[in-house]
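Q: Here's a chain of 235 amino acids. Please give me its 3D structure as tokens.
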Amino acid sequence: MRASSLLSPDVSGTGVRSEQGFRVGEVTLEGSIELVVFIGIFSGLFGAVYFAITRPWLMWAGKWHGAAFGLFLFAIGSAISDVLNRDNIDFVVLDNITVIVLLFFALFVLFGITIAWLYGWLDRRLPKPDDTSPMAVIYALASLLSLMFVGGALMMLVTDEGCDCNPSLVSGMAFAVLAAVTVALWAVHQTSGGSRAQKVLTTIGWAALAVAFVAGAVRAISDIADIIDVTRFQF
């Protein structure tokens, strides 16, 4: 947001408000806390859910799986976050829109890299629980608590709850299938299920991943084209 204000010197400090209600170019403690608590934390939690679902499918990228997740998250998530909503007033009041759109894209990729690094860091340092250790109980309770966010994260992909946007239904439904397949594969692995079931589920999962990404990417590219076109001719 600070970068956006610096890229719009004619607007910064004039009292013009952004889509979220913040004055462009004005940094306050109250606004920073509101941004972190009501946008940053919850967005991060939902992003963590998406990462947990897609991580097994992106490990082919090796050390770049975080960047791959960021790209995937941008494709499926940009339409549900108002980031690329052509009706977003920010794209009317701010200058250098192409650069700002690129910054939004970079933000998704940076989030993917960061959460992948954090996951690996915690995985190496947290104790590995067995069935009778206290940590097993703590992990189980944390897992149950995380289920509160799974439903919300999936609903955001197929409904307009929480934003004035129009999500890509195809991308959202495909991601919901991917989530179900990921859980099913984990259950099959835990019960030492047959290899045929694993092959069928894996095939469905890869197909769902591809559909979710392609449909989301098409939508994101279309939104970017609309934004640049609208802002180019707004005056």
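Q: Can you summarize the key feature?
A: The radius of gyration is 20 Å.
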